[in-house]
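Render Carbon-nitrogen hydrolase family protein in 3D.
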Amino acid sequence: MKKFNAAVIQMDSTDQVDQNLETLAGYIEEAAARGAKLVAMPENCNYVGRNIAACAEEIPGGQTFRMMSELARKHKLWLHCGSIYEKNAGDPRPYNCTMVIDPEGRLAAKYRKLHPFDVVLQNGPAIRESDRICPGDKIVTVDTETVGHWGLSVCYDMRFGEMYRLMALEGANLLFVPANFTVTTGKDHWEAILRTRAIENGCYVIAPAQCGVKPKFVAYGKSMVVDPWGNIIAKAPEQPGVVMAEIDLDYLEKVRKQVFTLENRRPDVYQLSRIGNQDSRRE
């Protein structure tokens, strides 16, 4: 499938899991009715609150996975489920984990956020996500064969360009950046970094975001889709909702045949590789 419609959900998630899931289900139904073949959700899509360990789930098997699996089967959709908190048997801190669910309702891949958001902002909050979240240790891509080859990341990961280049070199042409970005950083960095990741890798970037007032900050919103030339082809307003974008993989190949950012690298001078024995499709 060379052209298809992607839906991006912008959420104002709260600490009410059932309510958040009901809202997500409604948006997924809307996206399917509008012709989406894939639906992408933001970081912390099912829960934003202070008691994250209590809301962590098994993946697969938990409440959120079961609902998303049913919706994927019902509408024959690929679902990128933003991120939820995943139980961690070896640590009281859960993982911040992306689920990818195929149109048969199966878990196609999961990715645990690599880079916790540890910052001290001069005109904003001090946040140490690593106190509450256990980082993952693997880069994950998944080739859907019908709606692109996906590179997975979450929010603060976007500042570490090495992982996106590595995913592009491994075949990724859609880079996902679900986020719960602060207004303090978002007003200056969100669009700039997303467009950079698209341009430097010749990829579409799909970035669903949280909006609204959160326990520690105001979320920036501005969910968007960026094409491989760096154009913003879809952007959400301030409120929660669904925005649609057409993904054209033929156009992506045309861009890559004009600017050879992947081929013109100098691996004889510098190199980029995975560390250890990583299965790129799994956690």
